[in-house]
């Protein structure tokens, strides 16, 4: 195992200086500290050897997700994670992340520099710089809704999207719908790709035909509602499944503007069961993610990785929450 | 919540008799006890209400798998499970299962009758009668290598087969192999289907062509080695991936008999890393399943189900263990 001595020799500085840099002493410059950390990661120095009484720290790294307000999507995920981690003696720090910050230092250097033993990462897109680094990172990380192949210290947790779409499509089919469209987000995210595939697969499984005119996806909700929704309606869909509830809500509003009643003329199903979804007009039928359970499973997967149990993926069941945005198909 | 009274009324017997039947009293006939249990399950009576000081019992249900000897495949799985369950105060009973026993009583009735709160099920094939019942069962069950759709009290745990085959195929390709055959077990098992699909997917991902003559699968190892292996060799495969190590070992022996040297003429990769795989001639390169970790994850998934966290699947990373049955491709 590499020691402080190895770092000192490699950089031609004293062991004392290395130790100070690793322990965030005030009298070490930021530039030197950065070099020490980078060298430490490079030679595989283990962070749990920094000092004996080092804090037991985990972090939740969040991007593109509200977690501060109880109605924010991340709130219950963070809550579920903390609820198990804190009684186990962990300090859990929340870190808001951006692509710029990721470019400034590598994931492993960031984790070592902050003495975090592991990270629970929420909201990353496929273009985030750390997504590439995580393929070979050595500090345990659990990613919500993102999958990294083969690295035994990285896990993927999420919802079984395929089951969610199977349930939604089977339910619509039962009510007589055969022309079921899909509106989704841009393919720069693992989960948007997964949900789109899940839609295609569920349609096929239920022997329903798919047309390219009844599918639309875009980064912008407005593009989905203004560009794609009218095309779907022209092509006589009787139901639309949306990749998330905010989009489903916008779709319902725009259907009304275009003279279509939800659910009498057109049925709409969302995904997530966001906090507002019971209060839309009409209340939204949606595929629920149990966010508190996601947080708990995130903690379980992270402690498993810390104990050298290499979890590849942990998926929760989806649940179809039936409200009022779905009706029998209009003849 | 249904009570003992509801069972008594439904059967037209006294509450006392129902209680005795549920508590295995000697003075209740087996026939009556069976009717009480079946009625209890039918109306959704909850087993944790049987009596206040009921034992905290889980079971591991095993079929077609050696778990008694330390070299048996199931031994470490059972060990990993018990290692976590017992300190948590659970009694863990091992139950050897057959299709006949499954036909005699339903899963839920069996669980209620034995006061088991949950089951970890190993070695079931798709034709086992309880596989159908598990789709709607109400007693938590974690299945190793079997997947039941949608039921929120049933989880699937196993190894990420796709990653395992990706690693094996990529490794062989690196060594110059392009003609890689597959020998597998019969498709009556979920995991055999999954591994066959994983092989096809990995070949496609690595841009290698697949021919139907270089694929064989059968319930009988002898059919694989005597019928399919010669065909694979005639079709000039330079490497063979087998669905489990016992088959891989038989394939190596038969290659030698047919005048092919392993690994000089033909490379062989197994799956599982069975206890004998380090001692075959030559020692077998294989895709490892961490069986102790499988047992630990089985326990985690089962306690999650008992706490109403609906885990759909939990997959562990596969690991490629490189020994001596693989060499560079012969030109």
Give short descriptive properties of this protein.
homodimer; 331 residues; alpha/beta; six-stranded parallel beta sheet; six-stranded mixed beta sheet; 12 helices; 18% strand
Describe this structure in words.
Two copies of one chain form a homodimer. The first copy, chain A, is of the alpha/beta class and 331 residues long. Helices cover 40% and strands 18% of the residues of chain A. Chain A contains twelve helices and twelve strands. Chain A has helices at 4-11, 15-22, 30-43, 75-85, 99-104, 107-113, 129-133, 161-174, 190-205, 221-234, 245-257, 291-306, and strands at residues 57-62, 91-96, 116-122, 141-144, 154-159, 180-184, 215-217, 239-242, 267-272, 285-288, 311-316, 319-321. In chain A, the strands form two sheets. In chain A, strands 2-1-3-4-5-11 form a six-stranded parallel beta sheet, sandwiched between helices. In chain A, strands 7-6-8-9-10-12 form a six-stranded mixed beta sheet, sandwiched between helices. The longest helix of chain A is centred in the middle third of the chain and has 16 residues, at 190-205. The termini of chain A are far apart. The interface between A and B is medium-sized, with 24 and 24 residues. Strand 11 of chain A pairs antiparallel with strand 11 (311-316) of chain B.
């Amino acid at each position: 195992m590499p020691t402080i001595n190895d770092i000192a020799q490699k950089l031609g500085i004293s062991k004392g200086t290395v130790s100070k840099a690793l322990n965030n002493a005030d009298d070490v410059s930021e530039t030197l500290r950065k070099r020490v950390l980078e060298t430490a990661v490079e030679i595989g120095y283990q962070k749990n050897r920094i000092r004996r009484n080092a804090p037991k720290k985990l972090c939740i790294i969040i991007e593109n997700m509200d977690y501060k307000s109880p109605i924010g999507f991340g709130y219950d995920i963070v809550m579920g994670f903390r609820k198990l981690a804190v009684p186990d003696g962990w300090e859990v720090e929340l870190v808001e992340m951006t692509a710029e910050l990721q470019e400034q230092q590598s994931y492993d250097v960031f984790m070592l520099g902050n003495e975090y033993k592991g990270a629970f990462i929420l909201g990353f897109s496929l273009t985030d710089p750390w997504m590439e680094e995580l393929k070979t990172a050595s500090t345990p990380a659990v990613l919500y809704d993102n999958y990294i192949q083969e690295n035994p210290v990285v896990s993927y947790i999420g919802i079984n999207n395929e089951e969610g779409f199977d349930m939604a499509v089977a339910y619509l089919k039962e009510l007589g719908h055969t022309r079921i469209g899909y509106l989704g987000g841009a393919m720069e995210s693992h989960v948007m790709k997964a949900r789109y595939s899940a839609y295609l697969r569920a349609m096929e499984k239920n022997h329903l035909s798919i047309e390219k005119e009844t599918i639309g996806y875009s980064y912008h909700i407005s593009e989905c509602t203004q560009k794609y929704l009218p095309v779907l309606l022209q092509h006589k869909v009787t139901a639309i499944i949306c990749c998330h509830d905010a989009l489903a809500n916008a779709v319902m509003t725009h259907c009304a503007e275009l003279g279509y009643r939800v659910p009498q003329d057109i049925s709409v199903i969302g995904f997530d069961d966001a906090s507002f979804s019971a209060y839309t007009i009409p209340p939204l039928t949606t595929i629920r993610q149990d966010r508190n359970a996601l947080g708990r499973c995130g903690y379980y997967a992270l402690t498993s990785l810390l104990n050298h149990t290499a979890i590849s993926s942990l998926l929760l069941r989806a649940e179809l929450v039936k409200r009022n945005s779905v009706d029998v198909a209009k003849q």
